[in-house]
Design goal:
Layout (H helix, E strand, L loop, with lengths): L2 E8 L2 E8 H14 L18 E2 L15 E4 L8 H8 L6 H14 L4 E2 L1 H10 L8 H10 L3 E4 L2 E4 L1 H8 L3
Antiparallel strand pairs: 1-2, 1-3, 2-4, 5-7, 6-7
Length: about 170
């Protein structure tokens, strides 16, 4: 199947995607669904503002990695993800160790009692938030501060850990 490339600009959003035609169409539809103020986006094949361009087969693809969609936004005023909003509100969106703890506190507020580093990493990934460089190190640093207690391969939050996040506003 031939590769495709699409580039779209809308307000302060720039979207560039390259890969297999079906994958490119799906990525574009995902971006269009996230742009506030748009009514239901029509499928890519029917949109007038986006054009799918075939790339000659002679263009070499990078090996070993699946193509990724790149989106750039000049300014992001509000997030549509409640976890990201929570992290920003608690000033935990920049510091890795604090972000790790804040995600656990967020999940605790959702009713969870025990956590694992893969669970925290997966939650961050599912919310399209910048991933942690070393989740295990973040856990160890939070444990040293008394914010959590390890129990085998899992950990639980302490009242001190929960309070350190919830008091920050």
């Amino acid at each position: 199947m031939a590769d495709s490339k699409i580039e779209l600009s809308y307000d302060n959003l720039h979207f560039l995607c390259e890969g297999e035609k079906e994958w490119v169409e799906n990525q574009l539809n995902e971006v269009l669904n996230r742009i506030p103020g748009l009514s239901k986006p029509t499928p890519v094949a029917k949109t007038e503002e986006a054009e799918v361009i075939s790339i000659p087969e002679t263009v070499k693809k990078p090996r070993g990695r699946r193509p990724k969609a790149v989106t750039e936004s000049a300014k992001q005023e509000t997030s549509t993800d409640p976890l990201m909003d929570f992290l920003k509100e608690k000033r935990a969106d920049k510091n890795q160790v604090r972000k790790f703890l804040a995600v656990a506190v967020y999940l605790h507020a959702q009713g969870m009692e025990k956590f694992s580093t893969p669970l925290i990493s997966k939650t961050i990934k599912n919310a399209d938030i910048e991933k942690l460089i070393n989740a295990s190190d973040c856990l160890n640093k939070n444990e040293k501060k008394g914010f959590c207690i390890k129990e085998g391969k899992e950990f639980i939050l302490t009242d001190l850990g929960i309070g350190s996040i919830l008091r920050a506003e």
